[in-house]
Amino acid sequence: MTQKITVIRGDGIGPEIMDATLYVLDKLNAGLEYEDADAGLVALEKHGDLMPASTLESIARNKIALKSPLSTPIGGGFTSINVSLRRHFDLYANVRPAHTFPNTKSRFDNVNLVTVRENTEGAYLAEGQEVSPDGETAFSGTRITRKGSERIVRYAFELARSTGRKKVTAVHKANIIKSTSGLFLAVAREVAAKYPDIEFQEMIVDNCCMQLVMRPEQFDVIVTTNLFGDIISDLCAGLVGGLGLAPGANIGENAAIFEAVHGTAPDIAGQGKANPCALLLAAAQMLDHIGQPENAERLRKAIVATLEAKDSLTGDLGGTGNTMGFAQAIASRL
């Protein structure tokens, strides 16, 4: 059965890593069909819009998108494309695995965790955002809801149960931020009581960050609010070698977008230096999501085998290979 997915090639190094990723996916024979759609600076030039209606229609129609990094122009009048996509499709769960890979710059060899971040509310809504006329005071509101907290914590527990993970840690700051963070923690406790087969742990966010850099092996699934999740997931990427090995999924009830979470790296665009692993690992998450776990596992094992062999690795991984050569080496091990 063919699965059509929306492909957003992105800006900077985006087209290069997307070409490499689609090359490997084609070698998997996963029955994927691609529908190209524009977003970011390319879309702004072609359509006069960072996120054209045709792209939103494509994602809504196919329900699955694979996305390279996008640039949002600096300055007033431009809203973050990623934030806009999450709100438009109610992609409430941001899922970021962090797993140790061989022959990387990681200081640890035993990291295997997933951060589940609430993606649609919290500090990033920035409600009532304003700066006083004299420039001396700024204000931004934060909103947490029972519905948002309940569904993200439930998602974390269901993910743990379905993937054989044993523990969920709810990260909060309820000791100080007793309203918003307090509500999140209270709801997390209620949801946890419905999953007696999964260990539940509570941890204050500052302690969590310290524990992650001291003993990351103690964590399994971390669930938290939007701002804390953004910070923690990048911290976890640093534990395993950086954003070049960090995939991400944005999942809602009616659509899901899978992406490399690093930037567009315009300084190396078009030079074949970009590491495609983050987008390839996001593609593996996508394969899991559409019911192809065997192909997802084949892809992950091929990436690991290529890293172990140090075959055609890009410069950030200590090699002298290029983007497509790295992808070809991975494809040869499928």
Automatic annotation (TrEMBL):
SUPFAM superfamilies: Isocitrate/Isopropylmalate dehydrogenase-like (SSF53659)
Keyword Cytoplasm: no
GO molecular function: isocitrate dehydrogenase (NAD+) activity; magnesium ion binding; NAD binding
One family name in Pfam for this protein: Iso_dh
EC nos: 1.1.1.41
Domain Isopropylmalate dehydrogenase-like, chain residue ranges per copy: 4-330
Cited InterPro entries: IsoCit/isopropylmalate_DH_CS (IPR019818), IsoPropMal-DH-like_dom (IPR024084)
GO biological process: isocitrate metabolic process; tricarboxylic acid cycle
Superkingdom of this protein's organism: Bacteria
Keywords assigned by UniProt, alphabetized: Oxidoreductase
Position of the signal peptide: none
Record family assignment: Belongs to the isocitrate and isopropylmalate dehydrogenases family.
Alphabetical list of PANTHER family matching this protein: DECARBOXYLATING DEHYDROGENASES-ISOCITRATE, ISOPROPYLMALATE, TARTRATE, ISOCITRATE DEHYDROGENASE [NAD] SUBUNIT ALPHA, MITOCHONDRIAL
Name listed for the protein in its UniProt record: Isocitrate dehydrogenase
Organism: Stenotrophomonas chelatiphaga
